[in-house]
Design a protein that fits this description.
single chain; Rossmann fold
Length: about 300
């Protein structure tokens, strides 16, 4: 069996299987492979699902692969509807369930997902696995933030809410499985308006191994999704008041709005994010903001 062939829906020019995308007169996007598929060959589909059109294209690809009856895997670097991972109210849809049902009907052998928003994503999508530790750049980046020491200075990790802490507590156990020292931990709490979802206030919830006398040299805020960055800007203001001598870093996996890059760059000393959602080609990225390519090992 040859090495799996890649169908790269994020970077068409780097796809092993060439294809064309075009629109019918009614606006429907259609995909057509330039060659017949080999039934003896395994395939890996690489994609971002940022909107309904991305999902529609993936549905067509899955239909082709299943019609030919080949074995295929799916790697998703961004999955829409991750944040709608439960029934919020009976006035709106549990959209993650809809997306998951669509993917499940395609029946890929394995679905790898880069940093899902919650465990519910993995429970809803069959045969799913975390993609995080398959990406060398992401692993190296996270290890640098979790390092408890920078030269002679101690570091601290800040989680914007208890949900973020719960998501990443296993990461800490993974990073420190062979060492005794750990960085300080700061957990914040948010109070939202139940109707609008807007944040009414943000404050400290829990602080571990962080001294007000000997402040950390660096505090890194960790989370997965960033829109315009309002929550993180409020967090920065709170942290600077409590720890005025600490450098503030932030690392978000999924940056979904260029306004978020701009706002975070003003509030933090350094901003880190990945291109899971977009490459932001038309965005003037500030000098203190750094985008990491999580597709890099999939472009060869």
């Amino acid at each position: 069996m040859e090495t799996t062939k890649k169908i790269n829906l994020a970077y068409r020019g780097l796809s092993d299987v060439k294809y064309d995308l075009f629109k019918f007169p009614d606006g429907e996007t259609h995909i057509k492979f330039a060659e017949e598929l080999d039934r003896k060959q395994d395939y890996t589909v690489i994609c971002r699902i940022t909107n309904a059109e991305d999902l529609w294209i993936l549905m067509q690809v899955g239909h082709i692969l299943n019609t030919v009856k080949v074995v295929w895997d799916l790697k998703i670097l961004y999955l829409m509807s991750m944040r709608m991972d439960r029934i919020i109210s009976f006035r709106e849809s549990f959209t993650l369930e809809l997306v998951a049902d669509t993917i499940n009907r395609m029946e890929p052998r394995t679905v790898y997902i880069f940093h899902p928003h919650s465990l519910r994503t993995m429970l809803e999508i069959k045969n799913s696995q975390y993609l995080d530790y398959l990406l060398p750049t992401a692993v190296h980046l996270e290890e640098s933030f979790y390092n408890p020491w920078i030269g002679e200075g101690r570091t601290a990790i800040c989680y914007p809410d208890k949900g973020a802490y719960d998501r990443y507590v296993m990461d800490q156990e993974y990073m420190y499985r062979d060492v005794g020292n750990k960085p300080g931990v700061i957990v914040l709490k948010k109070v939202r308006d139940p109707e609008t979802g807007q944040i009414k206030s943000i404050d400290f919830d829990e602080i571990k191994d962080v001294s007000e006398v000997v402040q950390p040299k660096r505090i890194t805020v960790l989370d997965d999704l960033c829109d315009a960055g309002g929550t993180f800007v409020k967090a920065a203001e709170l942290l600077r008041k409590r720890f005025p001598h600490s450098e503030l870093f932030i690392f978000v996996r999924h940056m979904v709005n260029p306004l978020g890059i701009e706002n975070l760059a003003k509030a933090y000393d350094s901003v880190y994010f990945t291109n899971s959602y977009s490459d932001f080609h038309d965005v003037n990225i500030p000098q203190n903001a750094f985008m990491y390519d999580v597709f890099s090992d999939m472009k060869d």
